[in-house]
Amino acid sequence: MTHLPDHMLNGYRNFITGRYVDDSARYRSLANEGQTPKVVIIACCDSRAAPEVIFDAGIGEMFVVRNVANLIPPYGPDGDFHSTSAALEFAVQALKVEHVVVMGHGRCGGIKAALDADFAPLSEGDFIGKWMSLVAPAAEAVAGNSLMTNGERQTALERISIRHSVANLRSFPYIRAREESGELSLHGCWFDISTGELWVMNTETGDFERPDLGNGSSD
Ligand SMILES: [Zn+2]
């Protein structure tokens, strides 16, 4: 029998004798009463941009969906397999979350691949190529802009794709309906893994701005 890597087992030992003990009452109550997160967040698979870490979230606080480059595909009830849409459906319709947050990040490998005309498929299936074709028109426009540096193009497409994903959220009838009735808010944000900065999308202009963190009082 093969074993999990030692560092994982060591990490689990730390968890079960530390955080799990500290949070045991909360785990019990969440187990008995079910989860009631107010937020669903769609983030990238990137190991450097973990939403629970960035937002200092405890157990049961955020329903997290992660996919390559944090993309929301348009609503497409075509009988195919749609993991992100399935997670959104559960979060919005069953859990009745109040916020949907699309979080992108700097130095995103998926976005880099979308900008690279010479990107070669990593396997015969080319799942990344197919998935990233969701942002192909924007990627072509940004890649062709010779006024920007590579870094600027990368950041631009990371942010444009967040705006696209938020727009695609509204193609889901029940998401649009709940937003219009004021029961659901849609948000975008972008995390800079090199500085730790968080930039939040202004929902009126689409621009990304540094949030006012105030004096640390909770909301
Ligand atoms: Zn990424």
Automatic annotation (TrEMBL):
It is an enzyme of class 4 (lyase). One of its GO terms (biological process) is carbon utilization. It catalyses: hydrogencarbonate + H(+) = CO2 + H2O. Zn(2+) binds at residues 44, 46, 105, 108. Coiled coil: none annotated. The keyword Repeat does not apply. Its EC number is 4.2.1.1. InterPro entries: Beta_CA_cladeB, Carbonic_anhydrase, Carbonic_anhydrase_CS, Carbonic_anhydrase_sf. The keyword Zinc applies. Its cofactor is Zn(2+). Gene3D superfamilies: Carbonic anhydrase (3.40.1050.10). Keywords: Lyase, Metal-binding, Zinc. Pfam families: Pro_CA. GO terms for molecular function: carbonate dehydratase activity; zinc ion binding. Binds 1 zinc ion per subunit. Reversible hydration of carbon dioxide. Belongs to the beta-class carbonic anhydrase family. This is Carbonic anhydrase.
